[in-house]
Amino acid sequence: MKIGVLVSEGPYTHEAVDSAYNFVTAAIAAGHEVPRVFFYHDGVNVATRLSVPPQDERNIQENWTRLAKEHGVDLVVCIAAAQRRGMLDKNEAERQGKDADNIAEGFRISGLGQLIEMGIQTDRLVTFGD
Amino acid sequence: MSDVKKFLYVNRKAPYGTIYALESLEVVLIGAAFEQDVSLAFLDDGVFQLTKSQDTNGIGVKNFSPTFRALGDYDVTKLYVERESLEERGLTEDDLQEIMYEDEDDDWAEKPSIRVISRAEMADVMADQDVILSF
Hints:
The complex is a heterodimer. By secondary structure, chain A is α/β, with parallel strands linked by helices.
């Protein structure tokens, strides 16, 4: 089955993003296809490469980056939600005249259309939020 | 599977206090370009999103409630509001803003987009969907 995933809460404060990660890992292990995960609302904060959690804790961003690398999952960060929250890739930082960018490897910034497209193209859309 | 899917956007949160309502509406507006069969549901505190005479001057955030009246122009014409959620909050349909659309299949007659339905009917609306996005 083709499964699309929407993450709508941020990292560490809420468990939703961990549940999403565990779900995607399990779904792929069970032979399902997860072509895309879409990060919205505070979920966009998962994509910062500047988070430094204590070493004995999970690193949520690194887990997702590894998942994207190993299984080709398309990790899409909503551009409108990202810009509100200070999440910029290199191109956007230059375009907006900001002196830094912070999007981690494996994530890409794109529009809400990617969420709708995911809903159209997958058999199931599963939301992880509160 | 047909090309057109039934999308339902479920709005459960008050319009201000959190960003969910505003960012839900942003998805609806972008999603309209994909020409899917779109419905919106308003339940729990989400019914406050449609109340009339909203004034956000005191909290310094944008009042986005007028945008709901433009949804008809985006072919978003089915706004289901749960009656029990209204009643539990002391609201009636009269407290909601008037949202109309022009029905192209009926000589562009103006019709109300808001449909107040019972909790049981809301369950039927949800069961009938292909994709549900909950905010």
